[in-house]
Amino acid sequence: MSSTEIAVHIDNVSKNFKLPHEKSSTLKSTLVNFWRRDKGYETQHVLEDISFDIYKGEFFGIVGRNGSGKSTLLKLIAEIYSTSKGSITINGKLTPFIELGVGFNPELTGRENVYLNGALLGFNHKEVDAMYNDIVDFAEIPKFMDQKLKNYSSGMQVRLAFSIAIRANSDILLIDEVLAVGDLPFQQKCFETFKDIKRSGKTVIFVSHDLGAVESFCDRAVVINNGKMRGIGQTREMIHKYGSILADEEQIKQEAEQKKKESDRKKVLHTGTGDLLITKAELLNAKGEVTKSLDEGEAFTIRTHYLAKKDIPNPTLGIGVMDKEDNSILGPNTKEAKFSIGALNGEGYIDAKFASNVLAPGTYSVRAAMSDYDGRTPYDFAENLMRFKVVGDQRFGKVYLEPTWKVKK
After folding, report:
1. CA–CA gap between residue 231 and residue 202 (Å, rounded)
2. Where are the alpha helices (DSSP H) in 121-270?
3. N or C: which end of the chain has fewer CB within 10 A?
4. pTM to 2 decimals?
5. How far are the Cα atoms of 40, 243, 375 from residue 27, in angstroms, in the given order?
6. Interhelix angle for 125-139 vs 110-120, to 10°?
7. pLDDT for 32
């Protein structure tokens, strides 16, 4: 690899696409939208301010996740796309292995397509004659060469296209995931071919999600993420950098999901007829003070506030104390306790007093439900009414009940 001769010079390149918000399906709508100043476009910034050089004889990797802009960059280098800003200078003849099989005619036979694609690559008839057997042997489809291409499987078409493309007599090769073609033995054959290409001293620009292949072949690599260049240097260093980017993004994603879960847990959710609403819940300590924290074993009260919009005769109240995994730890209700609330109308509250705290240290939430006495009409089921903590020495289990100990010897 020469460190002085530049094969590809990429200077401050950006690429934007315009995504239309409206679809014109008729001639009238097309004409109307043509004369509108605001055509409803959204600009998508695919690449932003990309600059680097690729040297002659270098096997150069482009690394990034799906949607990062890697393939767009290859198509810019191949002049399939034009840049929105900046310039790309190519020093030498370039062949793109981006979309294998472009130029194939399904109505022609495999043999005819070999000569057609050979012509597209700049070979004359005698030159294709000389390489024909090697192309067919490499593709491993000699029995099918006189059949029409439309009868080939997609894998057979790609293998034939690849076998033709690697004959290209060019200085620079663009390779986009072509090592994924065919079955495992054919992929291995592709690897061996690229080892030969690397030894030949040609310049290769390689995009792949197979980081092992990138590390095996590439002298240097660039990392592209969200359309921006994140680093350029020795391949192993860039692969580690790419891994760090993915790890950071995954951590941010997990933190965002956790925040959403926490936010959802804090939201009070109501279901029911709404004739009687549970407006809030409060926690009172042994002194009768409103609190968010209890000591182990401390007596406490859960106070449930309600608003009855009409006369409600003797409803049932159930309280749920849930752990941080949303498992039910305590679930008393007035019907099981044979406690009569009586008729309700307007605002008020109902206290459930616990003589001791059986909960182990941790974070808990409170839910409550009110229904008619028989439980057939749900007035309100309110989740995430309140959260509180229990503090103290760690005890085994979710709850702690002190037994009476007895020993027999």
Report:
1. 24
2. 125-139, 154-165, 184-200, 211-217, 235-266
3. C
4. 0.60
5. 18, 50, 63
6. 120
7. 54
